[in-house]
Amino acid sequence: MEGCRAPLLNGWITPFIMGFLLCMSIPLASAKVRRYRWEVTYELQSPDCLEKLVIAINGRTPGPTIMAQQGDTVIVEVKNGLLTENTAIHWHGIRQIGTPWSDGTEGVTQCPILPGETFVYKFVVDRPGTYIYHAHYGMQRSAGLYGSIHVSLPDGISEPFAYDYDRNIVLNDWWHKTTHEQAAGLSSIPFVWVKEPQSLLINGRGWFNCSQAGTAVCNSTNPQCSPFVLTVVPGKTYRLRISSLASLSAFNFEIEGHNMTVVETDGHYVEPFVVKNLNIYSGETYSVLVVADQEPSRNYWAALNVVSRKPDTPTGLAIFNYYPNHPRRRPPTAPPAGPLWNDTEYRLNQSLKIRARRGYVYPPPTTTDRVITLLNTQNRIDGHTRWAVNNISFTLPHTPYLIALKHKLHHTFSQSAPPETYDRANYDIFKQAANPNATYSDAVYRLKFNSTVDIILQNANSMVPNNSETHPWHLHGHDFWVLGHGPGVFDPVNDPLRKYNLVDPIMKNTVAVHPYGWTAIRFVADNPGVWAFHCHIESHFFMGMGIVFEEGVERVGRLPAAIMGCGDSHRLPRH
Amino acid sequence: MEGCRAPLLNGWITPFIMGFLLCMSIPLASAKVRRYRWEVTYELQSPDCLEKLVIAINGRTPGPTIMAQQGDTVIVEVKNGLLTENTAIHWHGIRQIGTPWSDGTEGVTQCPILPGETFVYKFVVDRPGTYIYHAHYGMQRSAGLYGSIHVSLPDGISEPFAYDYDRNIVLNDWWHKTTHEQAAGLSSIPFVWVKEPQSLLINGRGWFNCSQAGTAVCNSTNPQCSPFVLTVVPGKTYRLRISSLASLSAFNFEIEGHNMTVVETDGHYVEPFVVKNLNIYSGETYSVLVVADQEPSRNYWAALNVVSRKPDTPTGLAIFNYYPNHPRRRPPTAPPAGPLWNDTEYRLNQSLKIRARRGYVYPPPTTTDRVITLLNTQNRIDGHTRWAVNNISFTLPHTPYLIALKHKLHHTFSQSAPPETYDRANYDIFKQAANPNATYSDAVYRLKFNSTVDIILQNANSMVPNNSETHPWHLHGHDFWVLGHGPGVFDPVNDPLRKYNLVDPIMKNTVAVHPYGWTAIRFVADNPGVWAFHCHIESHFFMGMGIVFEEGVERVGRLPAAIMGCGDSHRLPRH
């Protein structure tokens, strides 16, 4: 156990991954196997009072929360109970060290799971913290296929902060159009956009005004859409594990009249800081501590507001219920409206506050082996509206990269090297750009194993005048250090010197790139496999906003036959 | 060419299949390869003015009409352009002699085609006539994936009837709920029924009253939903090739003021008879001759009405336009309302009129080797509403039967023999029956190769009091002789003697079983393969109303690797 705790307590010295490997080599006395049996099905449900087909796990959306302890092996048997649709589930934030085929990323690490078939995901949860899982196939996440993963510390080890109760808060946005229809619109010429969500969900519950429901089945008294109630005992401290599975929206979450102390993000301890409200982007998780320290004779609103995009969705509401008040008693006040939706500086400043907690810092390598600059743009290709990085709009191949790279099926995807940067001298990120040379590609960034890689994510104007969106980028298979954020164009000479935090940067798996801004990250390519890196907005990745990294694929063991069955993997021998 | 024509003209003597094989052994001078490249995609369309996602082929629903000549080889490269859904296409009425893997029946003859992949169907169209194609996977046919196949005679050979022009009429029913939602409802407890269709489509065009559309996009002036116009020249004779792809409805088709002479059904010439209107069931095709012999100064309605179920859908309308009147000029009269919806006798009598055309009769074997009686009932199993035959509700296995039987993967489906009959002595077909012993099964009827098989389809009351539905049963891989239809309970002693037509029965691939009635068919199990036989109502087959026959599977050649990739076919060696 000492070998395992050492890197946590002594992280200034021991490199992170080294420490982890050391930890793995010493069996944890408490390590268990956590086995789940799930069936994925379509269900008619009313998350925001309007009846709609959802994709559920064992009948529920959000799906069951996976509860495990650090070092446990999680086995999830996923039976695809859909009629004609395949599926795949990604374990977001779990690095899949030694099990890259369990990452659940269709087209990257596996073929999809066919209807009627069962795929077994098996992986070790090597770090404590708050993670999520969700479909990584088409836009199925938007249809409701998602949930939480909570990994606790081994017995006898404590978090570096105290709380009385642990509660889960999953945030999402919700549309009434099916994801099939949304996707068809995104692929159409002219482009058909689903517009802003009809409602925001807190733990799967929202509220839509049924008087606007037309001929749809909508019942505002359906218990499925009664607001989530978080009951608190006066004086107690609550750890809220907040995660965003949003398809599109950047969120601001606030509990009326209560401060929140941020203590964890993406499985890493944060040097505590206090906020009135928390900005959270799709794919991020946060733990915040909230003390029930307000006047206890009433209830308070928990409010979810859209930021970064001009909101056209009512505030999502839950009830922060002081025991023993009636849990359904509406607070007497108006719900918090959140910060100004277009106050980018407010959000940038909150991002800059997030640093690793003292005593739990893993310092990054002080130098890097490679810098890849990724310009994020909206483009038009052959009449289609797309997103691109460095003018390349990503498409998934039909043979998953992990199989293609391991088995050298090089004809299954482009062998050209994707660009390391963009034409910085001539590109004006503040202007609507035509980007006339944008192309589709499924080429891969191949990384030298164990090398250190910096990524500069450079935001730009979209195809709409005076508009730049927030893009939360998520890296599979790794945590990265967040070296810095800044407004405007990244300056490769001065910004690393003046704006990089090489002392106590937070490690994360998902980070926002703010409108017209840049975000710099660093990671070590030490996890053999093939890993997606993409904007976590469901439609943006669908429209090409992503890339793929390969590193040390020659070190990956024999691939399980269960990930094969599509594209050219058909032709491989099976065992 | 003589070798090929012989069985048609001399069918009284030459057994049908023998004649076909003879034909195949003599290369037709005119035999061509007809190659089609299709992409299956979701599209936003408005077939009845209300915008809805449809599954289209090359952007259209109905898809392209396949035009070929007898003896041609048809090659259809189907690219699955759906995002997360698989597909498979069945060539309905094509017997697939020698190509049982091209039947396109997911779970029976192939694994589904994955998104992004291309499957090549290749088969010979060995008989002239009117056929259809459609998805045979989940309920995708209902989403719009269907079209027509027209096979003409070889050059220099004429039909035994004359006409000036050949026109295609495809009939369908249409719902606004997605097929995913419909299927989820059918699988739910309690059962959720989609109810009657919102509109009826003639060549893919219907009309819905947009004032009832709620918040849906609906535009009654959208050209996509302008009525189909059939322009005729006064005095000319039109061959209308009419087919029904209905998901649910039994149809009656009528052209106001014009008689129709029935001359073909399911690729077989009919001894001509005249009708005022034509009953047509899902999966059937008819050719009728219509003479433009009415007052030419006006247009007339072509009207599509629902029969057998109490209609709750407006009459489907097309315009029978006398040239040179304006094609959009509405006829001055009310559209035909069709026969009484519940006049079963009227429909039974029309069925009884359908006999093989003189000179084109293929007499059936006079005796049979096996009689299988199939009681059609509605059942409840574990709380689910289901259909069953002989109390067995069919489920598809995950390894297609053709692969499982050829490769002896006997663990992949039930090896028990499904029942040959039901408890005739104690079952009252006129009563609501609880059928408490109904079970699910994927067992197969194994037929002796080249044996003659009779099937007695016995209808019964559904779970609704005083209700019995019409079930159009479709047999893959064969035509069958329609030996007889009758009301009430089939009498195995007297009905074969008194009611069977062994002289000039029509051959078909789809035949209706009328409410509370029976239908007897005969076929020769001479086509090596595995063949579905099922109610062609999309929801009924989905709910278990079907069986599967195996015959001579040991004679089937090496299976193409392309049909594999699901269930236990993964494990087979590939070449």
From TrEMBL, chains A, B:
EC number of this enzyme: 1.10.3.3
Keywords: Copper, Disulfide bond, Membrane, Metal-binding, Oxidoreductase, Repeat, Secreted, Transmembrane, Transmembrane helix
Localization annotation: Secreted
GO molecular function: copper ion binding; L-ascorbate oxidase activity
Catalysed reaction equations from the record: 4 L-ascorbate + O2 = 4 monodehydro-L-ascorbate radical + 2 H2O
PROSITE patterns: MULTICOPPER_OXIDASE1, MULTICOPPER_OXIDASE2
Domain Plastocyanin-like: 40-152, 169-324, 430-552
Superkingdom of origin: Eukaryota
Assigned GO CC terms: extracellular region
Top-level EC class: oxidoreductase
Transmembrane segments: 12-29
Gene3D superfamilies xref list: Cupredoxins - blue copper proteins
Cofactor (UniProt): Cu cation
Main location: secreted
Protein family (similarity comment): Belongs to the multicopper oxidase family.
Subunit structure as annotated in this protein's UniProt entry: Dimer.
The protein, known as: L-ascorbate oxidase
Lineage: Eukaryota, Viridiplantae, Streptophyta, Embryophyta, Tracheophyta
